[in-house]
Amino acid sequence: MEAVLNRPPADPAARGAASAAIPLRPRLPEWLKVQLPTSSAFTRTRTLLEDLKLHTVCESAKCPNHWECWSKGTATFMIAGDRCTRACRFCAVDTSKPLPLEADEPQRVAEATRRMGLRHVVITAVARDDLADGGAEHFQKTIAAVRALNPGIIIEVLVPDFLDKEWAIDLVLAAKPQIYNHNLETVRRLTPSVRHRATYDRSLSVLAKAKERSGGSLHTKSGLMLGLGEQRDEVLQAMRDLRAAKCDILTLGQYLQPTLQHLPVTEFVKPAVFADLKERAEEMGFIHVASGPLVRSSYHADEFSPASAS
Ligand code: SF4
User: Fold this and answer.
1) Is 65 close to ligand 1, i.e. is its CB under 6 Å away?
2) Is the residue at 8 inside a domain?
3) How many CA atoms lie within 13 A of 245 on its CB side?
């Protein structure tokens, strides 16, 4: 198999010796270095979010684009609390017993969207496996509140798998988001070690169901992280699997280890590799592809417009 990565994995024996010593995070290559904020817009965004007591995945997941996005006055809202019921080994979001849902949160998200003047909003949530519907109804209420206060807005949801329950997916679809995003995250072989409470096929099924059950009225979207040890042909197969599930939009970005307790980065994938994969994805029929080291599910999400794609 041809490696996606630009360096072969370290010799396992050498890696074992290194892990016995104090673990160190590798130095970031130039293409992953980000600028700190220089404008007051970053502080305005933070103050607004604090005032409305909202969580964002930007902060909770330690996103490297936090400075850039907030300085541009955008953010990705994370609803249903900041405690996740899963413990995916790539994700920085806290895993602990969740608190009850807050009934006024949908309205606060709607108000933040209005104050920020967003024309395209991305709403995600922690996985709430403690709730029968996985938090689907809370998504529905949030979408409805956002639309009521922000007419004409494009609403993108980045949802958990809801354990593939059709009725839970339907609850979200009933609110008619324009973009239904659910991340595959990694290739089939690595899924059990990267997100042990999820399955590769369940995620594909969720995407296929959302497309089918919406009557094709929405765009589906998914993303993969690179740098976890995947091979090029495995990435290409994952892309083909997503197209077979009729996924429309693809994001590819570099995995970054949020803390030393999370999975290590096996490689920093070069920008040229991301560019090549973008071409391959477009050849496969994805209608929009964002591929680059700093790309995340919601990074520059407004660059895709459902109106221009239909
Ligand atoms: S890329 Fe998404 S999660 Fe990251 S800072 Fe930007 S809006 Fe937030």
Assistant:
1) yes
2) no
3) 28
